[in-house]
């Protein structure tokens, strides 16, 4: 490792983020602490808090990187689709796969309590909004006669259901033994939701 004086503020930030993500990927969110991060990168906790306001900011920035990775995964999935219905199904499968392959990092997004709504940084809001906007954009051709507000609600309702199945499964609180697999449950949810959505549009 280079001497401490060889690292800029930005380098220390990135080192800390990399260390935090490695710790969480290995030990889960409950295994993360400022002391562990500082020890991993060879700095003191005091130095860590010179580049981050507190542990909350470090966690939120690590979560932002996970949201970025999720967005890129879903964007690449959407680029391979040929029609809206198939695309929504593919996005659901991609979401399940991403969560399964990055369980602890994905889980930290939801385990870490956010500050009061007004205190959530814009850069974090933008990451969340971008992922939801991708779902809205994919859903839009199937809901052409709905308003922007109705489309936003539909996208959030649908994705809330997908997320619910996912989080119950990955926390071992969803019994799928003898029933359907998690992808099959997600596909059933999406299929039935889209049938209802398109039926309402046709009326």
Structure description:
With 203 residues, the chain is an all-alpha fold. It has 2 domains: 1-52, Homeodomain-like (Arc Repressor Mutant, subunit A, Orthogonal Bundle), CATH 1.10.10.60; 62-202, Tetracycline Repressor, domain 2 (Orthogonal Bundle), CATH 1.10.357.10. The chain is 73% helix and 0% strand. The protein is built from 9 helices and no strands. The protein has helices at 9-27, 34-41, 45-51, 55-79, 84-101, 103-111, 122-139, 148-170, 182-202. Helix 5 (84-101) crosses helix 6 (103-111). The termini are far apart. The model has no long low-confidence stretch (mean pLDDT 89).
Keywords:
mainly alpha, Arc Repressor Mutant, subunit A, Tetracycline Repressor, domain 2, 2 domains, 9 helices
How would you briefly describe this protein structure?
The chain is mostly helical and 203 residues long. It folds into 2 domains: 1-52, Homeodomain-like (Arc Repressor Mutant, subunit A), CATH 1.10.10.60; 62-202, Tetracycline Repressor, domain 2 (Orthogonal Bundle).
């Amino acid at each position: 490792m280079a001497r401490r004086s060889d690292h800029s503020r930005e380098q220390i930030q990135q080192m800390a983020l990399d260390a935090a993500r490695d710790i969480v990927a290995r030990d889960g969110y409950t295994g993360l602490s400022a002391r562990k991060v500082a020890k991993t990168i060879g700095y003191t906790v005091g130095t860590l808090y010179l580049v981050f306001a507190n542990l909350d900011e470090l966690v939120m920035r690590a979560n932002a990187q996970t949201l970025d990775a999720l967005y890129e995964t879903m964007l690449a999935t959407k680029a391979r689709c040929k029609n809206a219905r198939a695309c929504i199904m593919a996005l659901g499968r991609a979401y399940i796969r991403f969560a399964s392959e990055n369980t602890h990092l994905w889980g930290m997004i939801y385990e870490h309590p956010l500050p009061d709504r007004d205190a959530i940084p814009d850069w974090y809001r933008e990451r969340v909004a971008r992922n939801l906007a991708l779902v809205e954009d994919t859903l839009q051709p199937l809901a052409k006669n709905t308003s922007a507000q109705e489309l936003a609600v539909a996208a959030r309702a649908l994705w809330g259901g997908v997320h619910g199945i996912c989080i119950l499964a990955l926390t071992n609180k969803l019994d799928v033994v003898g029933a359907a697999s998690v992808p099959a449950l997600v596909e059933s949810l999406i299929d039935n939701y889209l049938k209802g959505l398109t039926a309402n549009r046709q009326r």
